[in-house]
Specification:
Elements lengths: L3 E5 L14 H8 L4 E5 L9 H15 L2 E4 L6 H6 L3 E4 L4 H11 L2 H9 L3 E5 L1 H4 L28 E6 L13 H11 L4 E5 L2 E6 L2 E6 L3 E5 L2 E6 L11
Parallel strand pairs: 1-5, 2-3, 2-4, 4-5, 6-7
Antiparallel strand pairs: 1-8, 7-10, 8-9, 10-11
Length: about 240
């Protein structure tokens, strides 16, 4: 299967600016002369699509790439069909997926990726690239028609993954606990992507990149700690 995806845990790291920590990987991923279609449906902090696009536009322009928000097109389906690359930013995953269903572009994105269109996702944008959004960290502030997502990969991601801290005074569930709850009802792999980590999916190969590692959870199997540079292609089987 043809697929070229860059699935990033987060758009910012503490002490750095928007997409600073993943700029080198984005540059290598997009290469030269790429025109990027931005899908701002996740609306972080409730900002408008136009406001969100301005943030992404300035950052991609700084990297030497052209970026256009999908909301500026009268026909979003045609915009996806003509795109060389798609970038879906973070925000609320439920709002994002609802927007994708409302625009009726999930099947078109899936088809275009299968034909070679590049896909970049950060946070919620990485969540919707997966089988479902059931492992998002977001509040379900809106109810999309389904939790089923783009299914560009047959596993799920938990972005912003935080390791359990033995001496923490936090009395709520850890991310690990929540993923175990997910696996009571579901069997697919879940990748806990720490801040600064990302997955480069190139056809049938996955490489863990970034500045931190990840943990891979599988129902009934011991959790696997993964380091930068590891090949995680087993996730596609």
């Amino acid at each position: 299967m043809i697929r070229n995806l860059l699935l990033i845990s987060n758009s910012t790291l503490y002490g750095s600016g928007y997409l600073d920590h993943c700029e080198d990987e984005i540059r290598k991923f997009l290469k030269k002369n790429s025109n990027v279609l931005f899908i701002p449906y996740a609306r972080p902090s409730g900002i408008s699509h136009t406001e969100y696009t301005k943030i992404a536009y300035k950052r991609f322009q700084k990297m030497g790439f052209e970026l256009t928000g999908i909301q500026t097109y009268s026909n979003p389906k045609k915009a996806v069909k003509n795109a060389e690359a798609v970038f879906i930013g973070g925000g609320n995953t439920f709002v994002l997926l609802n927007g994708l269903y409302k625009a009726d572009i999930l099947n078109i994105i899936r088809k275009k990726v299968g034909e070679g269109m590049k896909y970049i996702g950060t946070s919620a944008g990485s969540n919707v690239a997966c089988k479902s959004i059931k492992t998002t960290n977001d509040m379900p502030i809106i109810y999309p028609p389904s939790f089923k997502a783009l299914n560009l990969v047959p596993f799920n991601i938990n972005p912003h993954y935080i390791d359990p801290t033995p001496d923490s005074k936090h009395m709520g569930e850890t991310r690990e606990t929540r993923i175990k709850e997910f696996h009571f009802y579901n069997k697919e792999y879940v990748v806990g992507l720490r801040e600064g980590a990302m997955l480069h999916v190139n056809n049938d190969k996955i490489i863990l990149k970034g500045t931190t590692g990840a943990r891979v959870f599988k129902k009934g199997v011991e959790t696997k700690e993964c380091q930068l540079g590891d090949t995680l292609s087993f996730l596609l089987k």
